[in-house]
TrEMBL record:
<dbReference type="InterPro" id="IPR032466">
    <property type="entry name" value="Metal_Hydrolase"/>
</dbReference>
<dbReference type="GO" id="GO:0006145">
    <property type="term" value="P:purine nucleobase catabolic process"/>
</dbReference>
<dbReference type="GO" id="GO:0004038">
    <property type="term" value="F:allantoinase activity"/>
</dbReference>
<dbReference type="Pfam" id="PF01979">
    <property type="entry name" value="Amidohydro_1"/>
</dbReference>
<keyword id="KW-0378">Hydrolase</keyword>
<dbReference type="InterPro" id="IPR002195">
    <property type="entry name" value="Dihydroorotase_CS"/>
</dbReference>
<comment type="similarity">
    <text>Belongs to the metallo-dependent hydrolases superfamily. DHOase family. Class I DHOase subfamily.</text>
</comment>
<dbReference type="InterPro" id="IPR050138">
    <property type="entry name" value="DHOase/Allantoinase_Hydrolase"/>
</dbReference>
<comment type="function">
    <text>Catalyzes the reversible cyclization of carbamoyl aspartate to dihydroorotate.</text>
</comment>
<feature type="domain" description="Amidohydrolase-related">
    <location>
        <begin position="56"/>
        <end position="422"/>
    </location>
</feature>
<dbReference type="InterPro" id="IPR006680">
    <property type="entry name" value="Amidohydro-rel"/>
</dbReference>
<protein>
    <submittedName>
        <fullName>Dihydroorotase</fullName>
        <ecNumber>3.5.2.3</ecNumber>
    </submittedName>
</protein>
<dbReference type="GO" id="GO:0046872">
    <property type="term" value="F:metal ion binding"/>
</dbReference>
<keyword id="KW-0479">Metal-binding</keyword>
<dbReference type="InterPro" id="IPR011059">
    <property type="entry name" value="Metal-dep_hydrolase_composite"/>
</dbReference>
<dbReference type="GO" id="GO:0004151">
    <property type="term" value="F:dihydroorotase activity"/>
</dbReference>
<dbReference type="GO" id="GO:0005737">
    <property type="term" value="C:cytoplasm"/>
</dbReference>
Length: 440
């Protein structure tokens, strides 16, 4: 890379690693931040400058749970369209889930994704390896990966791992992080029968109810304690699970929450129908409040979008044929920054929940802070202007958002990946490529 890719960001309101703000400049060179100071003097020529007066400079968002559908389901999304959406949303790195076709359960499938990502991704990437009941050897050996993904529920086929003996065997062997989609499949099956024939999508939250989530979370917490195994609870959705973790959370356990479970609840079914259907399902306003409090108190460690796009045509099928999942990478940062403007949390907390804490939990080196030596993955946001989420502006291939019409602030003005501008005031620089993440 030539030094001409150096970037000088001038007069930004920079959030520093201690959570304090400083008005000043940031200089990047060869993918890294080299200097952060009130004013930087450089004799470098051919340097790109951004006048960031009035904008806030944050470390880029690391989204630790997304479904980008490639390979195999590219009619919903692909790695290029998904990462265009990431660039617009200030997401500079992502961790992607194994329920693609073929499933990411082998080194070969992981290598294929990494190769595709190298060719197509505008931002940095990492891919989970999926657990199956067979426990393939690559589950322990595949590299690089942030960890093992287990679907305990709301999945069919090979990726469903709901038998205690299999779970036990996975937890017993190896050391790598295990990330769990915790819903109890036996309870879901039983309740599906009880509610059979109901096509009102609101029943989704009753079938896959709080108890289904709690049972599974209790089960994996026990396993994690028994084997002292690093556990991450994906998209925690209920007050009951938050209370369970509040009572007792081993130091090797982390948990995340989605913006959907913070900002939406079962009242969304009336407004947007099956577009509000996801797994685990939306809960009550009480659950929203308890999850917010758990985030504030560190019971929940960070935020993931669970970006799971489906086409409008697929979503238009009557429940239960409508697929579960919503897109999220374009709206997560503005949603959280709008919450700061409403006094629900601080910008420093949002940075921690959406970047610093994620880098720490997954052992991603050099990310999650604005300081010399860190990777130059940055986002400049505008906290002055409000703009609504508009369907016609959505870059995700699915072409919709559950937050359409929401008037948000904190939209990215610039997104920078490895020192290169990938998104600039509505324009994408589609030639920029991210890199494979590493995990320590
Ligand atoms: O709602 C969901 N959709 N939750 C998941 O865990 C999977 C996802 C998908 O892949 O569509």
């Amino acid at each position: 890379m030539s030094s001409s890719t150096s970037l000088l960001i001038r007069r930004a309101r920079i959030i520093l690693p201690d959570g304090e703000f400083m008005i000043g400049d940031v200089l990047t060179r060869d993918r890294f931040i080299v200097e952060v100071a009130p004013e930087i003097f450089t004799d470098q020529t051919a340097i790109r400058e951004i006048d960031a007066e009035g904008l806030i400079l944050l470390p880029g968002v690391i989204d630790p749970q997304v479904h980008f559908r490639e390979p195999g389901l590219e009619h919903k999304e692909d790695l290029f369209t998904a990462t265009c959406a990431c660039a617009k949303g200030g997401v500079t790195s992502f961790l992607e889930m194994p329920n693609t076709r073929p499933l990411t359960t082998t080194q070969q499938a992981l290598d294929d994704k990494l190769q595709r990502a190298q060719n197509k991704c505008l931002v940095n990437y990492g891919f989970f390896i999926g657990a199956t009941a067979e426990i393939l050897p690559d589950l322990l050996l595949a590299n690089p990966t942030p960890g093992i993904k287990i679907f305990m529920g709301s999945m069919h086929g090979q990726l469903l791992v709901d038998q205690q003996e299999v779970l036990e065997a996975i937890f017993a062997k190896g050391k790598r992080l295990i990330a769990v989609h915790a819903e109890d499949q036996a309870r879901i099956n039983q309740r599906r029968q009880e509610f059979a024939g109901i096509h009102d999508v609101a029943v989704h939250s009753q079938i896959q109810d709080n108890q289904a989530a709690l049972l599974a979370t209790q089960q994996v917490l026990k396993l994690s304690e028994k084997y002292q195994r690093r556990l991450h609870i994906l998209h925690m959705s209920t007050a009951e699970e938050a209370e369970l973790l509040r009572q007792h959370k081993p130091s090797w356990v982390t948990a995340e929450v989605t913006p959907q479970h913070l900002f939406l609840n079962t009242s969304a079914y009336e407004k947007i129908g099956t577009l509000a259907q996801m797994n685990p399902p939306l809960r009550s306003p009480h659950d929203n409040e308890v999850l917010w409090q758990a985030l504030h108190d560190g019971v929940i460690d960070f935020i993931a979008t669970d970006h799971a796009p489906h086409t409008l045509e697929e979503k238009a099928q009557p429940y239960p044929n409508s697929p579960s999942g919503m897109p999220g990478v374009e709206t997560s940062l503005p949603l959280m920054l709008t919450a700061t403007a409403q006094g629900r949390c601080s910008v420093a907390q949002v940075v921690n929940w959406m970047s610093t804490a994620v880098a720490k939990a997954y052992g991603i080196p050099n990310k999650g802070a604005i300081a010399p030596g860190y990777d130059a993955d940055l986002v400049l946001v505008d906290l002055q202007t409000y703009r609504p989420v508009l369907r016609e502006e959505i870059l995700s291939k699915c072409g919709w958002s559950p937050f359409e019409g929401w008037n948000l602030t904190g939209w990215p003005a610039y997104t920078i990946v490895g020192g290169e501008i990938v998104y600039e005031k509505g324009k994408l620089h589609t030639q920029v490529r991210g890199q494979a993440l590493t995990f320590t």
